[in-house]
Amino acid sequence: MWPLKFAVLLLVAGLTLANSDEGWKNAKSIYEFSALDIDGNKVDFNKYRGHVTLIVNVACKCLLTQEHYKKLSALYHKYSESKGLRIMAVPTNDFAKQEPWAEPEIKEFVMQFDVTFDMFSKISVNGGQRAPALEVPEGEAAGLPLQRHQMELHQVTG
């Protein structure tokens, strides 16, 4: 379970718009972060407080993309109102270059799946091109890659 939680911390750290590369290391919950949505608007993660939140990395060219978007959309439509579910979809091109498109093309593509959950701007989560906030302190699983189709479910407490 520890690698999964750490991988999600890396994903969240990559999303953050913190001014300092050190800022994410002191965070006590996901609610201290913010990121740009697919339209370039800043989203304060505090909006997810009190909600069960699923964070998932996505890619439009993955063989499982259609199935995943359909299921995520159905899950969101079923539980967003009745149970307060929120989904944060984060595109990345880090896995087999399966997300080559820019945000406008990604947004247009996902419309066919009736995606109404939150889509974020594309980020890098692995390798030398990853966001500076993803730097891991020496001795804390440096180099641990985020896995393709990684998902994390957060409780309402963050």
Automatic annotation (TrEMBL):
<dbReference type="InterPro" id="IPR036249">
    <property type="entry name" value="Thioredoxin-like_sf"/>
</dbReference>
<dbReference type="GO" id="GO:0006979">
    <property type="term" value="P:response to oxidative stress"/>
</dbReference>
<dbReference type="Pfam" id="PF00255">
    <property type="entry name" value="GSHPx"/>
</dbReference>
<keyword id="KW-0560">Oxidoreductase</keyword>
<feature type="signal peptide">
    <location>
        <begin position="1"/>
        <end position="18"/>
    </location>
</feature>
<comment type="similarity">
    <text>Belongs to the glutathione peroxidase family.</text>
</comment>
<keyword id="KW-0575">Peroxidase</keyword>
<dbReference type="InterPro" id="IPR000889">
    <property type="entry name" value="Glutathione_peroxidase"/>
</dbReference>
<dbReference type="GO" id="GO:0004601">
    <property type="term" value="F:peroxidase activity"/>
</dbReference>
<protein>
    <recommendedName>
        <fullName>Glutathione peroxidase</fullName>
    </recommendedName>
</protein>
<keyword id="KW-0732">Signal</keyword>
